[in-house]
Amino acid sequence: MKITKNKVISIFIIIAVIVTFFPYENSIKSSETINNIKTIKLSKNSVNLTTGKKTVISAKVSYTNDNEDLEKYNWTTDDKNIATIDKNGIITAVANGTTYILCSSKSNKVVVRCKVVVRNPYNKVSSISFPQKSIRLNIEDKRKLEPAIKITGNKTYTTEPIEWSSSNNKVAKVSSKGVVKGKTNGTAYITIKSKFSGKKATVKLTVTPTKYIAFTFDDGPGVYTKKLVNALKKYDSKATFFALGRSVAKHKSALAYAHANGMEIGTHTYSHKNLKKCSKSTIKKEIKDGKKIIKDTIGVYPTLLRPPYGNYNKTVSKNAGVPMIYWSVDTLDWKHKKTKYVDKSIMRQSKGWDIVLLHDIHKTSVNGFIKALPKLKKKNYELVTVSELYQIYGKKMKPGVMYYGPMIKRK
Predict the structure, then answer these.
(1) 49, 117 in Cβ contact below 8 A?
(2) Helix, strand, or coil (residue 150)
(3) Which residues contact 400 (CB under 8 A, 6 or more apart)?
(4) pLDDT tens column, 172-207
């Protein structure tokens, strides 16, 4: 085939056009500058926020090569009604619920996500603890556990939810309200845990034949009260202290110490007057002032009242405001101030379901009780508060009513 001059010119023109509009060098450079995202790693895989709060999330990105022209990435959210995110990675909680924040390469070839849980404002649990390391329980008996829970936050908010669990449901089960029930002899560990902050505490529960007893201490607090509380703690035991207002005024730290270590605090009025012989106004003042100084000292009002000498009338009952507690065993420790006598009196008279009367203002009473304490534990006694004694027995106490022991009929 003969190529004419005109054809040659036409071919050169076509080549020139191709080179002009599709430069070979530029096409190679273009393919080299595509720096795709290889991986994305987020600074947070999950976020918990309350409505209205914000947090920042960042992305660490790796690329396929080292060129400067980097592929971009975008932030998006699955549900803007629950949480939003801006171009700077700032997450804003909008409403209660769960959604996901997505970080994706511009090409959508690489996508990672962060779970976002938004909750209504609540008071966080800052700490949880049990006053005892171990407790005992009979088969079929129920006992409400009372851990010390400290919270932080706004009083108008609800408290962070807590969850209960048993390590062995065949031995003991625990309800959502902390009521544990013995099922069969053995050992289980009962745990309470805050749902969001993860604070927790565990108590060892032994289901075994058990005798419950409540020791009560009147007229304190005094100089021996802390020693007494330390002994109770050592043997995983509790007691009820009927505090006298004028004694509280002198030994506030001792009462606070007893309360902080799980002891029950009742009132013994303010100045130990025989209320049965007092006027109505005096009765009201003695009870009111006795309660107030306790509230001012430990932050809560007393749960029970023991009228001095156990004496009361209709006016006392009407103004008590809480259940009144007598006793089923009087050790006469106040009369026989000898350590050995108190020890023997406790061991000789005490039996299951008793409410025992002692006084923590006497050194001999405290020392005698401490001497008896390990012997009581060896005899399978579980020392509980008065309120626990009635709760385990399955009986609810009423304000203004005098109680002598869960197995004793009202006198």
Answers:
(1) yes
(2) strand
(3) 317, 318, 320, 321, 323, 324
(4) 999 999 999 999 999 999 999 999 889 999 999 999
60-107 pLDDT per residue, tens:
999 988 777 889 999 999 999 999 999 999 999 999 999 999 999 998
Give the three-state DSSP class for 165: strand
Q: Reduced to 3 DSSP states, what percent helix, strand and coil does the chain have, rounded to the nearest 5?
A: 30, 35, 40
**Model pTM above 0.85:** no
Helices H / strands E in the chain, number of each: 10, 27
What CA–CA distance (Å, rounded) separates 315 from 337? Answer: 34
Residues labelled catalytic: 218, 359
C-alpha angle 222-225-230 in degrees, rounded to nearest 5: 165
* Cα separation of the two ends of the chain: 135
**221 prior amide bond cis, ω within 30:** yes
pLDDT at 409 over 80: no
182 in Cβ contact with 140 (< 8 Å): yes
* pLDDT value of position 159: 87
Structure tokens at 174: 């625990």
Give dist(CA 96, CA 57) in Å, integer.
20
What CA–CA distance (Å, rounded) separates 41 from 367? Answer: 65
Q: Which residues pair with 135 in a beta bridge?
A: 205
